[in-house]
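Run log // design_07
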């Protein structure tokens, strides 16, 4: 009669599609709120209490019933994007800002050079990293961007 799809459904459950950008903004705002409340874990992520609070608050604000693993996966994706963004900016201080695109305004030569160094940054050429202020609060001082390792 019924198939046992436990492993398939659990695997699918972990990764969800964040189609509405406001969900990510809400997620980031709530993460910052938990960090500022002192609910940060030892190794940069949230404490158990922070994750528990986040699951409840995220559900209350968005109507989405995502569990800790689904939210943690989003945390990890955002952290990886933030690290790529930080590597892309590097130590360049003469970069402009394209307010229309919301990303770095630089020459094609600069982009070509940077994309050779950081291929994953190609997604930021025409649209910058969203929620940057919150992501800085979530990950700065707790994540090695690569520059600190040299």
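design_07 sequence
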């Amino acid at each position: 009669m019924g198939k046992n799809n436990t492993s398939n459904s659990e695997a699918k459950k972990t990764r969800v599609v964040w189609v509405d950008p406001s969900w990510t903004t809400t997620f980031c705002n709530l993460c910052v709120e938990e960090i500022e409340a002192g609910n940060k874990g030892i190794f940069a992520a949230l404490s158990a209490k922070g994750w528990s609070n986040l699951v409840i608050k995220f559900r209350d604000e968005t109507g989405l019933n995502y569990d800790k693993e689904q939210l943690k996966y989003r945390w990890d994706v955002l952290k990886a994007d933030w690290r790529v963004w930080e590597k892309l900016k590097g130590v360049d201080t003469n970069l402009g800002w394209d307010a229309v695109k919301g990303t770095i305004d630089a020459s094609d030569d600069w982009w070509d050079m940077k994309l050779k160094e950081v291929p994953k940054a190609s997604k930021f050429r025409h649209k910058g990293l969203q929620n940057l202020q919150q992501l800085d609060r979530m990950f700065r001082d707790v994540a090695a961007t690569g520059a600190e390792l040299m």
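DSSP finds six helices and two strands in the chain.
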